[in-house]
Amino acid sequence: MTLIQVTDRDGTRHSLDAPDGDSLMVALRNGGLSVEGLCGGNMACGTCHIHVLNAMEGQLPLVSADEAALLADLPDTMPQSRLACQIPVGPALTGLSIVVAPDD
Ligand code: FES
């Protein structure tokens, strides 16, 4: 399990104990934190859009060309935007702090 700090769409902060091996999208969805993950992690929906609050250089997987293309089409995309379905939960995420992006 890896502890991740999450701010939901209502601005409420949560400490999420995420199961290692899940994608971050699945952990957020199972934790009831407003992430739909409608495409099941196939980079087709954008409903797992998050903003990473703290620098996690070298800790997060690099953004692929497909992820970047989908993020570019989403509203509220920021330089720190990611798709949670593309981030595997594991010890490398310890200390990660994220905000669930607005649902537009
Ligand atoms: S779950 Fe659909 S893009 Fe991440």
Plain-language structure description:
By secondary structure, the protein is an alpha+beta fold. The chain has one domain: Ubiquitin-like (UB roll) (Roll). The chain is 15% helix and 22% strand. The protein contains 2 helices and 5 strands; from the N terminus they run E-E-H-E-H-E-E. The chain has a 5-stranded mixed beta sheet. The longest helix has 9 residues. It is globular, with a radius of gyration of 12 Å. The chain starts with a strand and ends with a strand. The chain binds FE2/S2 (inorganic) cluster. FE2/S2 (inorganic) cluster (FES) binds next to loops.
Number of helices: 2
Small-molecule binders here are: FE2/S2 (inorganic) cluster
Give the domain tally.
Answer: 1
Query: Based on DSSP secondary structure assignment, what is the total number of beta strands?
Result: 5
Radius of gyration: 12 Å
Largest sheet: 5 strands, mixed
Descriptive labels:
single chain; 104 residues; alpha+beta; Ubiquitin-like (UB roll); 5-stranded mixed beta sheet; 2 helices; 22% strand; binds FE2/S2 (inorganic) cluster
